[in-house]
Amino acid sequence: MRNQQAYDYIIIGAGTAGCVLANRLSANPEHNVLLLEAGGKDNYFWIDIPVGYLYTINNPRTDWCYEIEPDPGLNGRSFRYARGKVLGGCSSINAMIYMRGQRSDYDTWAQLGNRGWGWDDVLPVFKRSEDYQHGADEYHGSGGELRVEERRVNWEILDAWRDAAEQCGIPKIEEFNRGDNFGNAYFHMNQKRGRRWSGTRAFLRPIASRRNLTIRTDAHVQQLVIDSNDDGPGISAVTVRFGGDTPATIPVRKEVVLAAGSIGSPQILQLSGIGPGALLHEKGIPVVHELPGVGENLQDHLQVRTIYEVKNTITLNRRARSLFGKAAMGLEYLFYRTGPLTMPPSQLGAFAKSAPDEASANIEWHVQPLSLDKFGDPLHPFDAITPSVCNLRPNSRGHLRVKSPDPDQYPAITMNYLSDPKDQQVAVSSLKFTRQIMIAPALARFEPKELKPGPSYQTDEELLDAARDLGTTIFHPVGTCRMGNDAMAVVNDRLQVRGVRGLRVIDASVMPQIISGNTNAPTVMIAEKGAEFILSDD
Q1: Which of 37, 403, 488, 509 is the most exposed place for a label (fewest CB within 10 A)?
Q2: Which residue, 126, 122, 128, 129, is CA-closest to 146?
Q3: DSSP assignment letter at 411
Q4: Which phi-psi region, left, alpha or beta, contains residue 506 (left: φ > 0; alpha: ψ -120 to 50)?
Q5: 258-285 pLDDT tens trace
Q6: What gap in Å lies between CA 191 and CA 188, rounded to an integer?
Q7: Are strands 274-275 and 289-290 parallel, antiparallel or unpaired?
Q8: CA angle at residue 182 from 179 to 185, to 5 degrees?
Q9: Of the listed 188, 220, 289, 476, which one is catalytic?
């Protein structure tokens, strides 16, 4: 690095997308590839154990520990906003849910003018990466790097909740990854025999010894170096600080790929003078190339966490609070790789319409056999269940903006949750729907008692206020470098930054509209397609 060796491709960010890109771009031994990760190695004990997300989220060793700006839509609240800062990125700390979204999501992307991004275009790409537990079929792939398996623990209360949802018109289905998610089912997970199967394990570790691939951790990108000539601005190098060293400038021969995620990628662009001109002038950053959409169009899934005390069954609250229960869970995992230690934050999901006139399912429940006041707090001393419901297609939009030219200063993350009247309506309808499920006959023997928001919240105004108090993120930020061909688009449908040669963004930030579901699997797909674009243009 001291010699400032040039690389054919520099990938910024070794999260989900970066791991895929490193694998695909370095497959050709003639390509010299550098992968930069601001965080450290993924050798932390709790990363591989599925329940270890309890110890990796809000941990500076593995998480950027961002905070959103106080949000009027949440009654002025702010909260921590987890993003992976470690090899594997968010795939090393996330919920491990393998969810593609719905056919209509991708067909809408294509209808917006993004060629090659419809459902029929992307389904083969999903299948290519996949190693599905039950083998290949019309919707699944086998032999790919990304392992997809069923849950490895059962809960009586979750089976009963499925029955209750069916009694309320949400049918039981086999899975969510076939294009139409309406129904209820147990989630598929990125695990392999009870261990987290992160982007690092799937795509990076197997090829880390390639001689043409250099992986650097603790490498915080400061900015991109942009040169201009008669053809306009083009990327020439990346300035990086390795640990506490003086920043080094690394030349690039072909392309730089931003894969730093929906927070990191727009921040790096803005720090490099690519973004809204007025913002850059205000922060004292020279404008290299004005792109007003950089950092705009921020979307996320806001979930409203309801809590119900239950009786006549055992939930994780009881199992995890006793020394005997903890020991039993540990031994089960040690010997069998099954049980509660294999649990993601949510095992059970359901998709439905919040109103009959919705074109497709627009709300999703993540159902947990546990309860706590907030993430990081101890479990409650009684058995309980937490059905969290979210609006899959929010109209509210936020933005990300740098606060200064200092790369070490976190940007302002403004979510604007529930700022759109339609989103407010969906939140209220979702809470009412959750109550219908919880009083269904299938759950009667468990005597569910609503603790949050509580029976005192009855009117639409009261339920909206409850949603503002209880709403929290599922950590699905997308859209801040969206693809398209209008003035606010940041990249084209081949993920090239508009107006800058040799620079692409390939991560969840390019989504023009948020996916109706969890975002990790779509990020793998985006990276696969992005790698195809790069290699075909080589």
Answers
A1: 403
A2: 129
A3: P
A4: beta
A5: 999 999 999 999 999 999 999 999 999 9
A6: 9
A7: parallel
A8: 95
A9: 476
